[in-house]
Amino acid sequence: MAALRHKGKTDGRMSLADHLRELRRRIVISALAIAAGSVLGWTQYDRLFTAIMAPLREVAAQRHGLVNINFGGITQPFTVQLQMSFFLGVIVASPVWLYQVWGFIVPGLTKREKRTSMVFISAAVPLFLLGCFLATRAVRRAVEVLLGFTPAGAANLPDAALYLNFVTRFILAFGLAFLLPVFLVGLNVAHVLPARLMLKGWRIAVMLIFVFAAVMTPTPDAWTMLALALPMIGLFFAAVGVATLLDKKRSRREPDWTKVPDDEASQL
């Protein structure tokens, strides 16, 4: 999406090189924030490791068997700690990188639209953290179901790195999924996605949400998938409602940009 603010351009547009420099700057800022959060994750590794191990220990207590993770090499404890620190860094730095993503998408909006969009970016961080929190509850059920297929009397010693990847992907999937309404409304504010098109394609959206939930929650039970899919569907329709209100307000002060004929140039 072309950024439209650049003080050096009389027509208000950025060149491709300026656009790429803007992208690089925002990536660097986000990376520095994640690195700083990773330092915190490194210092809190023991607590984080205990929390991630909790589902395995609960299953072990229920099954009265050997259920634990396995460090398969000398260097793996170090790499696991590094990965877990980075994971916490992404969570802690979410206000920064979410702001940078949003700032890259919406720089060309009017001052009024930018003020409106800031309301939604302020909702992005709580939604992301809420998704991550719900995932910590759902992952317990997912681990219990998957380990339930272990035959009686057999030990289950998953690789530490693989177990970590499963848990972190699960949590991040929930967090990112809960950002759906923010970016839908953002696209609407940016004159890209009108509310009527969102509502027209609701069946496709619901199907894609269920597909996404099924892929990101690889468990045979439906409850874990529904724990992700149903909130996403609710957030989707909430975004449609907000976008409808914005379109109505916009239509009172400017022409309908969604009904421009194919052979005419629009203001967009």
How is the topology of this model organized?
Elements: H1 16-43, H2 45-63, H3 76-92, H4 94-105, H5 111-147, H6 160-177, H7 180-189, H8 195-200, H9 202-216, H10 222-253
Helix pairs in contact: 1-3, 1-4, 2-5, 3-6, 4-5, 5-6, 5-7, 7-10, 9-10
Description:
The structure is a single chain. Helices cover 72% and strands 0% of the residues. With 268 residues, the protein is mainly alpha-helical. It has one domain. The N terminus is likely disordered.
Order of helices and strands: HHHHHHHHHH
In total, the number of strands is 0
Return the average pLDDT rounded to an integer.
79
Calculate Rg over CA atoms: 22 Å
- Portion of residues in beta strands equals under 5%
Number of helical regions: 10
Helix fraction?
over 70%
Q: In one word, what is the shape?
A: globular
Taking the sheet with the most strands, its summary is:
none
